[in-house]
Amino acid sequence: MSREVAKRRPTIREVARLAGVSHQTVSRYLRDDPTVNEAMQQRIGQAIAQLDYRPNLVARAMRDRRTGRLALLLPSGTAGSALEMLTGAAAEAHEAGYVVEVVTLGGPTESRAGRVLELADSGLFEGILAATPLPGLSERSMSGATPIVISADYDDQMRSIGELADASTTAEIIERLARQGHRRFLHIAGDYAHTSARRRRQVYLETIERLALESYGVADCAWLAESARRAVLDLPADCGVTAVVCANDVLAAGAIRGAVERGWRVPHDLSVTGWDDNALGAAMMPSLTTVSVDHERLGRRAIRRLLAVLRGQPEPEEHERITSVVWRESTAPAPQD
Questions:
Q1: What whole-number distance in Å separates Cα of residue 194 and Cα of residue 203?
Q2: Per-residue DSSP letters for 20-33?
Q3: Residue 272 and residue 246 in contact, taking contact as beta carbons nearer than 8 Å
Q4: Cα atoms in the 13 Å half-sphere on the side-chain side of 278
Q5: Cα distance between residue 297 and residue 218, in whole Å
Q6: Residue 227 falls within a domain, yes or no?
Q7: 176 exposed, middle or buried (CB, 10 Å; 0-12, 13-18, 19+)?
Q8: pLDDT in tens, 117-161
Q9: Are 192 and 246 found together in one domain?
Q10: Which residues pair with 326 in a beta bridge?
Q11: 48-66 burial, b if ≥16 CB within 10 A, otherwise e?
Q12: What is the reported pTM?
């Protein structure tokens, strides 16, 4: 009876032969040695991809006292965006020759710093990236030879903070709607326990004032579609509101339902915007104008910060926002009287 033979893993020498360089040069490439010129880097990278070469982490750890492992620390809880962030972080780490392992931080917040220092001293990881605040530790800390970098994107209940809670794109939405003739707005806000909801409300109010527009008010709807629906249904017929800026896509869907129930056409009578770029928004009738958040880019950025510390390099300066407006059918120029 025939037995299926397991596929043998390619070796670093096979990569070197295919790339036309020495195995020492491939080794230097894997260590991000700047002496490997650009042409060689390209050939080696192509050879690695063609052979699907993966470094033997156990052998490398024994030889270089390296593990090839990075820890990504997350608070306990669930957030769909964390999976996208992890995808970006893992991809960036893989390209640099590392693997990322997720470690969940439970227990009291005040005890986390001590537990993270114990993890760093264990020697299991070459670097640690915390995606949540660690009271008692600075943004860049060291425990022995293990760097700890804090990129606080989630609080202890997995709610967005830091760059993830940046609401500056709200201003871009209102500015464009103002150019399209909208003058009176309504904001449908989320749960103020979330930093993101508070900041979106704040930027809405600041932008309305800066542009000398009118706000009919802020409806506090705590991420509930039914509350958003009711907020639109309860608007007086002569309220003059022509645009509703919602704190997320669920609220926007509720607002659109309320508008349709009262006979208002979206976007001809009322423009509506959301936030999060939920996949259902593109399939709605009309499709929803929203804000897309590039969580994968956020994960890549965070790993690049950690890699810079590992290599003794300055942290990269990256100022491009991770949010962008996706303009769709739910917005249009203001109705003409």
A1: 15
A2: TS-HHHHHHHHTT-
A3: yes
A4: 16
A5: 32
A6: yes
A7: middle
A8: 888 888 889 999 999 888 887 766 666 678 999 998 888 888 888
A9: yes
A10: 290
A11: beebebebeeeebeeeeee
A12: 0.77
